[in-house]
Write a structure and sequence with these properties.
This protein has 14 helices and ten strands. The strands form three sheets. A six-stranded mixed beta sheet has the order 2-1-5-6-10-9, sandwiched between helices. A two-stranded antiparallel ribbon has the order 3-4. The chain has a two-stranded parallel ribbon with strand order 7-8. It has about 325 residues and is of the alpha/beta class. Helix 1 links the parallel strand 1 and strand 2. Helices cover about 45% and strands about 15% of the residues. It has two domains: about 190 residues, Class I glutamine amidotransferase (GATase) domain (Rossmann fold, 3-Layer(aba) Sandwich); about 110 residues, Homeodomain-like (Arc Repressor Mutant, subunit A, Orthogonal Bundle).
C-alpha cells in the first residue's frame, strides 16, 4: 500500500476560493486513482470563522497548533485578497503561525503557496535568498518590499528545496498535479487531469500568459464565438467566409471587428493557437513532427518548422 502523505491547507482570512479548491480537488481525485493523500484543514485559531474573499464562510476549523506533520508531508497556503496584504494583514496575529512554519520547514515538511500566499512566507522571513514566484500582478510589489528574495517573473511555479511557490489562480492546480506526479507518477496524474478536464499538466517554467487568454480582454460575444471555434478546431481550415457565416456577419465586418477587439488578424490568431497546441504536443516523446503538424492544422512538418521559426526563432525540436 502507498505510504500516506498528509496535505494540510491553512485557511487564512480573505482566502481566495479557487486557490484553495483547485489543489484540494487534485489531491481528492488522485486518491480515487490509487494515491494516498490525507487532506486536512486548519486556521489561525480553534473554532475560527474565516471569511473568504468571495463571501463563503468557513467555521469549526482547528488551530494550526494541533496539526501534526511529518517529513515529506505538505502544507499549502492558498492566496488571499491582495489589497488586505498591502494594508498590513500579515503583520498582526501571525507571529505564532510564522514560528510554526519555520518549525515545519526545519522538519522537512514541504511548504507550498498559491498566488499571494507567497507573501506569507515572505513576511515570515522564510524566503530570504530563495527563489520564488507569485501572481504576475503581485511581482513588482514583492520585489520592492522584499529585496532579498529572488523573484522569478512569468513562471507557473517554482520549487526551491522543500519550498514550492506558484503563480495565480489555476496555477495551484498545476502545482498540485506536479506534486501528485512527484509522489505517485505520471499515470495517476494524467488520470486526474483528465477527470478534472484539465488539458494537461503545465510545466512550472511555462509562462503565466496564454494565447487562450491574452486576446480575450474584450467583451464582444461574436468575436468570442469565433475565437472559441478556432481554439477547439485547430485542424480545420476555418475560412473567413465560414467563420463570418457562423456569427452572421460579412467577411469584411468580421475581419474589421476581430482586429479591433483583439489587435491581431484572424489568420495570426489561428497560427498562434496552432503553435500553442503544437507546443503542448511536443512534450510527448512519441510524437513525430509530422504527426504533431497534422494535429495542429499545418500542411506538414515542414510548414510547422517554418512557422515555428518565424515566431520563436528556433526549431520545434530545439524546444523539447
Amino acid at each position: 500500500m502507498n505510504k500516506e502523505i498528509k496535505v494540510v491547507f491553512a485557511i487564512l482570512p480573505k482566502v481566495h476560493l479557487i486557490d484553495l479548491s483547485g489543489p484540494v480537488q487534485v489531491f481528492y481525485e488522485a486518491n480515487q486513482f490509487g494515491a494516498n493523500f490525507k487532506i486536512e484543514y486548519c486556521a489561525l485559531k480553534d473554532d475560527d470563522i474565516v471569511n473568504s474573499q468571495q463571501g463563503l464562510q468557513f467555521s469549526g476549523l482547528q488551530s494550526f497548533e494541533h496539526i501534526e506533520l511529518s517529513k515529506d508531508d505538505y502544507l499549502f497556503i492558498p492566496g488571499m485578497e491582495f489589497s488586505s496584504i498591502k494594508e498590513g494583514q500579515l503583520t498582526s496575529g501571525y507571529a505564532g503561525f510564522y514560528n510554526w512554519l519555520h518549525k515545519q520547514y526545519k522538519n522537512d515538511v514541504n511548504i507550498c503557496t498559491v498566488c499571494s500566499g507567497t507573501f506569507v512566507l515572505a513576511a515570515s522571513n522564510m524566503l530570504s535568498n530563495r527563489t520564488c514566484t507569485t501572481h504576475w500582478k503581485c511581482i513588482d510589489y514583492l520585489k520592492k518590499n522584499y529585496p532579498s528574495i529572488k523573484v522569478i517573473n512569468d513562471q507557473l511555479y517554482v520549487k526551491d528545496g522543500h519550498m514550492y511557490t506558484s503563480a495565480g489562480m489555476t496555477s495551484g492546480i498545476d502545482l498540485a498535479l506536479f506534486i501528485v506526479e512527484e509522489n505517485f507518477g505520471p499515470v495517476i496524474t494524467s488520470k486526474v487531469a483528465r477527470e478534472m478536464v484539465v488539458f494537461l499538466r503545465r510545466a512550472g517554467g511555462e509562462s503565466q500568459g496564454s494565447i487562450y487568454l491574452d486576446f480575450r480582454t474584450h467583451i464582444h460575444p461574436a468575436i468570442h464565438t469565433v475565437q472559441d471555434y478556432i481554439i477547439q478546431h485547430p485542424t480545420e481550415k476555418n475560412s473567413i467566409e465560414e467563420l463570418a457565416e457562423m456569427v452572421n456577419m460579412s467577411e469584411r465586418n468580421l475581419t474589421r471587428l476581430f482586429r479591433k477587439h483583439t489587435s491581431i488578424s484572424i489568420n495570426d490568431f489561428k497560427t498562434k493557437c496552432r503553435l500553442a497546441h503544437a507546443e503542448s504536443l511536443l512534450k510527448h516523446p512519441g510524437y513525430t513532427i509530422d504527426y504533431i503538424a497534422s494535429q495542429c492544422g499545418f500542411a506538414d512538418g515542414r510548414q510547422l518548422r517554418r512557422m515555428w521559426k518565424e515566431h520563436y526563432g528556433n526549431s520545434p525540436a530545439a524546444s523539447r
